[in-house]
Amino acid sequence: MGTRVVIVGAGFGGLSAAKALAKSPFDVTVIDRHNYHLFQPLLYQVATAGLSPADIASPIRGILARAPNVSVILGRVSGIDTERREVLADGRRIPYDTLILATGAQHAYFGHGDWAAHAPGLKTIDDATYIRRRILLAFEKAETETDPAERARLLNFVIVGGGPTGVEMAGAIAELANRALAKDFRAIDPRSARIVLVEAAPRLLTPFDPPLSAAARTSLEQLGVEVRTGAPVTALDDSGVSIGTERIETRTVVWAAGVMASPAGQWLGAETDRAGRLKVTPDLSVPGHPDIFVIGDTAALNDAKGNPLPGVAPVAKQQGQYLARLLRAREAGKALPPFRYRDYGILATIGRKRAVIQMGRFKLTGFLAWVLWSVAHIYFLIGFRNRFVVALNWMWNYVTFQRGTRLITGMSGAKVEELPMPADEKEILRRAS
Amino acid sequence: MGTRVVIVGAGFGGLSAAKALAKSPFDVTVIDRHNYHLFQPLLYQVATAGLSPADIASPIRGILARAPNVSVILGRVSGIDTERREVLADGRRIPYDTLILATGAQHAYFGHGDWAAHAPGLKTIDDATYIRRRILLAFEKAETETDPAERARLLNFVIVGGGPTGVEMAGAIAELANRALAKDFRAIDPRSARIVLVEAAPRLLTPFDPPLSAAARTSLEQLGVEVRTGAPVTALDDSGVSIGTERIETRTVVWAAGVMASPAGQWLGAETDRAGRLKVTPDLSVPGHPDIFVIGDTAALNDAKGNPLPGVAPVAKQQGQYLARLLRAREAGKALPPFRYRDYGILATIGRKRAVIQMGRFKLTGFLAWVLWSVAHIYFLIGFRNRFVVALNWMWNYVTFQRGTRLITGMSGAKVEELPMPADEKEILRRAS
Predict the structure, then answer these.
(1) Which residue in chain B has the smallest CA separation from A75?
(2) Partner residue opposite A404 with nearest CB, options B386, B406, B410
(3) What CATH number is attached to the domain comprising A270?
(4) pLDDT in tens, A35-46
(5) A144, A147, B48, B378: which one has the fewest Cβ atoms less than 10 Å from its Cβ?
(6) Is A14 in contact with A32 (CB distance < 8 Å)?
(7) What are phi and psi of A177, to 5 degrees?
(8) Does residue A129 sit in the same domain as residue A82?
(9) A119 and A222 share one domain
(10) pTM to 2 decimals?
(11) Could you tell me whether strands B194-198 and B225-228 are parallel, antiparallel, or unpaired per DSSP bridges?
(12) Last-in-domain residue among B331, B357, B387
């Protein structure tokens, strides 16, 4: 039996490591709490009824089926026994020689745990179908609501956080209201919905250059989104959001404002930064634990200029691939230079035909940027089927403005008023407080 | 304002009535507890990871968007005030001049309410994703199970009921195990899974002629399904099923054995048959209530030969269309002959390339029957998009034996052991006991 490599998490980082170790002499085990890999950059499309969960998720076992040296365990890791070199999951102990922690991040409310119940975040498929249900139910309730104040509240939507997720959610909700739902109701006009995007920083999309932030803002405003920058949320409850002295009454708030690394730092009792990320050495191992590596959103690492690497898929993927090379090199008695991130650029989409792209000095906005964004995302989606169905769905949405997936599921047996909160949300509440 | 027609339920019956009343002088309101119409005949494909929920469900508002005289209310009906002619839903009162009850059926355990927790039935999307989760989790648990007895129990699957749903489920689970999952696991061989179909009657598919029942049985056995006929279930708990003296140990039982009409009979305090269906007059109205009509699975009506009409989509659809004609005729001061069902035949599919079809004296089995079955189902699916995506998905499944939708959702934040039961299941438990 070869060296035992255990990978916790099958996101972009863990999966790229596992794929790069396929058909190697290593004995690889991938542990994830879900049975699928999720293409998170398109999760907002599930939350806004543009795509089905299966369009952006692919069973991990299927992806790794042709790698006989890789096995997959569906399980929830609760700790690491670094003395005995074992991963603890669902009461079992899984031994490792080398451990790769690729456990990602979750949304965080930074000291406002009570906000979680009113402002769900977007990290998992269950989060996305829950947000989809909340958005669609707000329109349904508004249709039968007789009190004008409550009706207005139901037709207000606030997105907190002006990063890529917040910008994408705001654009997609605006198009849902203005186009897909426009003719569906009799008592209300969905086009009268008010969508407000709130950002604490002075501009949207801070990782982009200011002209691109401004272009994104203009595009959103043309879609009817109200943008508030320099506006930190000071209060949030089940009937609205306060930004300084301004109060926005709403029943639907989406949280896209902050993430926190997974609890991997706690498992190891090792040093983390403010966002819970583990500090790693240049070869991505944990100081004092040369057999434990951390990649993706759980790792805190700076680039050559001293800037922290962003929490995006390409960083995680390149780190996973780097580790596979590193382990193979070490097995052959060789060394490898430290990890170095190759930045191919960042992009964000606004609604159905605009995007902003920044690749070094090259910048692009508008429709052409959207086309590039679409091609890139379809290309990176795992599995031919998903890629093809996503392309088809998009084309269909683009041509017709219909959204075929606007289903309110997970509420059979419940009254409309009783919105069941997914197990996930309860977990977030628990963690946040 | 025109005559107010309220339709409760947007299944095949209610929706066909609503569509046939589109752009009429009637003021139509459709009330449903879901925001989508469900193409129930393909629900077993969602439960066995062949299709996504959105492939077989279509938002009711979207279907009726171009009918300005039709409005849609998402709500749960709890009773009818026949004196004041009002429907009670979520604390609201919706007035009607004419009422159409098309509330369908739900699975029933006929005196064995305690079986519901161990043997979920298949009527809603949440039922289907719940069963999908149970089936996929059984394989996941078997992969990490070390006790051989428990592992065998996890790899046994029992389907109770040999009607079309039971036959289709058994065939689809067999193909999932033998094909789609075959290469996904390391510790178990999914092909060793045992699938048992149990039917109390002496043969499968009793509405079909005996040679077709025999053909269906042979096809199932060729897929590896064990068929037990004349075998009523005598006990059922969380570790297995008893058929007379035989005990089959299993963790996964699917209930396809019985349905019960919706509680519409109770709402009216009117006479129902043993299965809870309301007896109706030849014009589909409730005796003593000429302004209240009942169609589909909730209505008990015999054909010209005195045989009860089956609980299938074409009956419900034709009844809905008949009612629309009847109401238009009455508005014009005319009369209409009694409802008469035109039987175009029955069909059931077995796995990925066989079916049985019976149209009067014409009978067909095997691959050609499957092709006909596929064409018929794709044709009847509502909405171009769904039809197209379903065709694509099927082709893809057919060519590759992959199942892209085998996602275990609705369990984030929970341990693998803690299978959350959907609200729906709790409701069924409550009703069943």
Answers:
(1) B416
(2) B386
(3) 3.50.50.60
(4) 999 999 989 999
(5) A147
(6) yes
(7) -70, -45
(8) no
(9) yes
(10) 0.88
(11) parallel
(12) B331
Q: Do A402 and B385 touch (CB under 8 A)?
A: yes
CATH code for the domain of A173: 3.50.50.100
Instruction: Assign A218 a pLDDT band (cuts: 50, 70, 90).
Output: very high
Number of H helices, E strands in chain A: 12, 25
Tell if the CB–CB gap between B413 and A393 is shorter than 8 Å: no
**Closest residue in chain A to residue B408, using alpha carbons only:** A35
Asked whether residue A230 is domain-assigned, the answer is: yes
Written as one letter, the residue type at A219 is S
pLDDT value of position B225: 98
Catalytic positions of B: 168
Say whether B402 and A62 touch across the interface (CB within 8 A).
Answer: yes
Mean pLDDT per 10-residue segment, chain B (433 residues): 92 96 96 93 91 86 92 95 96 96 91 92 92 94 95 98 96 92 92 97 94 96 97 95 94 93 91 91 96 96 89 95 97 94 90 88 90 82 64 66 66 40 42 38
CB A190 within 8 A of CB A178: yes
**Structural domain of A35:** 4-107+259-331
Of B278, B306, B331, the domain-final residue: B331
DSSP 8-state symbol, A55: G
The answer to whether B256 touches B160, Cβ cutoff 8 Å, is: yes
- Asked if the Cβ–Cβ distance from A412 to B126 is below 8 Å, we say yes
- Distance from the Cα of B114 to chain A's closest Cα (Å) equals 18
In degrees rounded to 5, what are phi and psi of residue A102?
-135, 55
Residues of A in contact with B408 (CB under 8 A): 34-36, 74
Nearest chain A residue (CA) to B74: A140
